[in-house]
Design goal:
It contains twelve helices and ten strands. With 332 residues, it is an alpha/beta fold. Helix 1 runs parallel beside helix 10, helix 2 packs across helix 10 and helix 7 packs across helix 12.
């Protein structure tokens, strides 16, 4: 058998190509099989104690088991969640820095903070939506009304003289209230507090007349009768307080709002790492201990696959962008 110089060159090139391809596949398989090899940081862009922090800590415990490495929650609050989001968008895209985002930041903040330093579509890869929790419309006990029509009538009799508490400009509670005001045609002044706890204390003390309060915080207040609850923002009644009507049932057909949580990674994170994280997240959201603990706090698992993330993000952003424009809300 004889070989020409050209035949040898072509054969060598083909062999090298096969080796390179095999090496790339081997690296990908190794990355998927070995990831993670060290602890993972799960960033929460809000202070400890709120619903996002609670969800993160419940998920981190089970994700640690699924991934075989510790998942550590790190709080990076500020600027309606945009500080934490910006930090993760700039992190190394290797799967070791993740974000538990909430729709108030990944879908609403872009319409309020155009100079936030990152792009929600270009800066992140969606591992998947994980859960949703409703928000309760609560009022001060001393107002003397028991339902939404009564509150609306009272607000119309005191134009511009009533106020509501929000847990921060651009938060889900803030925009849930603005959507409510738009749909009812009433004007109630916004007073923004530095977090959910001081906002609730202001409501109880009578410094403000109303507030939309996330379920984790609202349920104990409702049970203790520290506030009067008028409705829940979800499309169906809450199983923990089935006597509370939805806001849609109480006179605003079509009204719906919730805090929705998703796990995100910096754009550029390898596809095989995203797949590993997505599988671990799906398994976490199906774990009975996770499901039960979340549901006890009125947070409902709702896993969304990685492939569904772009369409969900587009629709959620469009909805809240329209509310923000129609209400003329500006923060910068």
């Amino acid at each position: 058998m004889t070989f020409t110089r050209r035949g040898l060159t072509q054969g060598l090139a083909a062999s090298l190509g096969l080796v390179a391809t095999g090496s790339a596949l081997s690296r990908a398989a190794h990355a998927q099989g070995s990831f993670p090899t060290r602890p993972i940081t799960l960033v929460v862009a809000w202070a400890p104690g709120g619903s996002t922090d609670f969800v993160a800590r419940v998920l981190a415990q089970q994700l640690s088991k699924e991934l075989g490495q510790q998942v550590v929650v790190e709080n990076r609050p500020g600027a309606s969640g945009t500080i934490g989001h910006a930090s993760v968008s700039r992190a190394r895209a290797d799967g070791y820095t993740l974000l538990l985002g909430v729709n108030s930041t990944f879908a609403m903040a872009r319409h309020l903070f155009p100079n936030r330093g990152y792009d929600d579509e270009k800066g992140f890869a969606g591992i998947g939506k994980v859960a949703t929790t409703p928000i309760f419309l609560c009022i001060n006990n001393n107002l003397g009304v028991k339902d939404i029509p009564g509150f609306v009538a009272l607000a119309k009799s005191r134009p511009g003289k009533m106020s509501y508490a929000s847990s921060g400009a651009g938060s889900s509670a803030h925009l849930a209230t603005e959507l409510f005001l738009r749909e009812t045609g009433i004007e109630v002044q916004n007073i923004s507090y530095r977090g959910g706890a001081p906002a609730v204390q202001a409501l109880i003390a009578g410094e403000v007349e109303m507030a939309f309060v996330d379920a984790v915080t609202a349920l104990p207040l409702i049970a203790a009768k520290q506030v009067t609850v008028l409705g829940v923002s979800s499309r169906t009644r809450n199983p923990l307080v089935p006597e509370v009507p939805t806001i849609a049932e109480a006179g605003l057909p079509g009204y719906e709002c919730a805090s929705e949580f998703a796990i995100l990674a910096p754009t550029g994170t390898p596809a095989e790492v995203i797949a590993r994280l997505s599988a671990a997240t799906e398994a976490t959201m199906k774990a009975p201990e996770v499901t039960e603990r979340l549901k006890q706090n009125s947070i409902f698992p709702e896993f969304g696959a990685t492939a569904a993330w772009p369409a969900y993000l587009t629709a959620e952003s469009a909805k809240w962008g329209e509310v923000i424009r129609s209400r003329g809300i500006t923060l910068e």
